[in-house]
Fold:
Amino acid sequence: MHLLSIAKLKQSARQQSPVEASLRAQIEKLSLKEASNGKPFYEVVFRDESDTMILRAWTDTTAFENCSIHNQGDFVSVEGAFSHNGSFGLDARGWELNALSLEEVELLLEGSTERRALLDRVWKQISEAVESISDPRLGELCNQFIGQYGARFRRSAAARGNHHARRGGLLEHTSRMMESALALCGVYPELNRDLLIAGVLFHDAGKLWETCPPERGYGIEPELRGELLGHLSIGIELINALWREFSKERWESLEPSSEDVRLHLLHLVASHHGQLEFGSPILPKTPEAAILHFIDNIDARLEMFSAAYQAIPEGEKSPLEWVRPLGVAPVRALPPILQKTTDPLL
Structure:
């Protein structure tokens, strides 16, 4: 029986059903409900580092007994024969639930070898970009943020849904945006590179209190600060709080002035949603603010296209489902041309 992540299990079940497999995950939600015939059943939402899934346990199954002794937040292994049930997603036959040991929980939270390698790589990319900042004020501010909130930043999600909605997702999203920003600075050297790097780092910093899983968990639970203020307001507050922590007298002779630098960075965070109806209190009014909005939108949209493509097995002609934030049902991307060789020996 193969040990799979939820994402891999979904993919395998679409290609071939049923799939005999086991997975390790956290119970995000456990609800006792009643069917139309009056019989009780459990509905369980599982989450791991890759995705979420929902299974139902009926009264005449071992899974129902298993669910009765577990709680929301428990880490468990799930074993069974999994099938893809059309638009209803995963279904399972004869599945069972068992608690994980403390050692197994620690290994699960560390993530797979591939996942750890990915997050280490993107963290390094972000850190190197910050170290390359020439403006000492922005460099100090970014290092203060990483030093104080690095652990929280590494585990935050970029959203509750739509894109990068997973533990570590904000790190992935920020890294790809940083790569895009640096590439565009090469094309448009008139851009303030230091300001744009800082803007990318801080644009979603408020999500550390809006979409951040706990240290020992995957679930993205609402946090009062995030619910009442939203990540744009929190990001602005965070920049101002960190800015007050270090003395700027030694930089009084620098141009542009420290106050102008602070205001321009705040503008990037405040305007990065791009439109008033999408939550920005102000529209982008500088080239750096416009670039930040566009690369944020590009990375989010490409992630949604990628997720839509993964939902259908490779080579299958089934139409892709409608993706509400994109406003379309995506069409498969055109693959690059394969060069044919005329050498008979190859």
Summary: Residues 112-304 form one domain. The mean pLDDT is 91. The CA atoms of residues 210 and 223 lie 6 Å apart. The beta strands are 2-3, 19-34, 40-47, 52-58, 75-84, 90-99.
